[in-house]
Amino acid sequence: MRSLLVTSAALLALAASAVPSAAASVQGPPPGGRGLFLTLSGDQNTWIRGVLLRCTPEPSGHHPFAQEACAELDRAGGDFGELPRQDRICTKEYDPVTVGATGTFRGRPVAWHQTYGNACELAASTGHVFRF
């Protein structure tokens, strides 16, 4: 339980650092914004992971597939619901996973969340974006 609290606190701190401060908003956001904070969690938040993905000026952040994820988001026009689907055969096992994206992508604000029936459905629907 303690490690879950520590992990949650660390993720909240990382999310807070991804939000522009009041001083930054007065001067205007940096080119391309601060990036996207992506989260992935299990059923009833039994586990949670998160990474920062920046696509401008070039793919970076803590995402292990930053280049591929940014390319897929570009092809989808920044719309997470339009990410390229992969043809996969997934079991009907119900083990829900919830993903979220908050921040900015190519200067546009993003606030998106979706729950998938299992990890296979997630992978088929989101490509490299939530593969971390």
Helix content: 25-40%
Please provide the ordered H/E string of secondary-structure elements: HHEEEHEEH
Alpha-beta content class: alpha+beta
Strand order of the largest sheet: 3-2-1-4-5
Q: Assign the CATH class.
A: Alpha Beta
CATH superfamily: Subtilisin inhibitor-like
Q: Give the overall pLDDT as a whole number.
A: 82
Radius of gyration: 15 Å
What's the architecture, going by CATH?
Answer: 2-Layer Sandwich
Count of helical regions: 4
- Overall geometric form: globular
User: Which topology does CATH recognise?
Assistant: Subtilisin Inhibitor
Major beta sheet summary: 5 strands, antiparallel
The span between the termini is: 23 Å
Low-confidence regions: 1-32
Q: What is the count of β-strands? A: 5
Strand content: 25-35%
Describe this structure in words.
The chain has 132 residues and is α+β, with helices and mostly antiparallel strands. It has one domain (2-20, 32-126): Subtilisin inhibitor-like (Subtilisin Inhibitor, 2-Layer Sandwich), CATH 3.30.350. It has 4 helices and 5 strands. Strands 3-2-1-4-5 form a 5-stranded antiparallel beta sheet, sandwiched between helices. A hairpin with a 5-residue loop joins strand 2 and strand 3. The relative contact order is 0.19.
Outline:
The chain is 31% helix and 25% strand. Mean pLDDT is 82; it is low at 1-32. It has one domain (2-20, 32-126): Subtilisin inhibitor-like (Subtilisin Inhibitor, 2-Layer Sandwich), CATH 3.30.350.
What is the topological layout?
Layout: H1 2-18, H2 22-27, E1 36-41, E2 48-54, E3 60-61, H3 66-75, E4 97-105, E5 108-116, H4 119-126
Antiparallel strand pairs: 1-2, 1-4, 2-3, 4-5
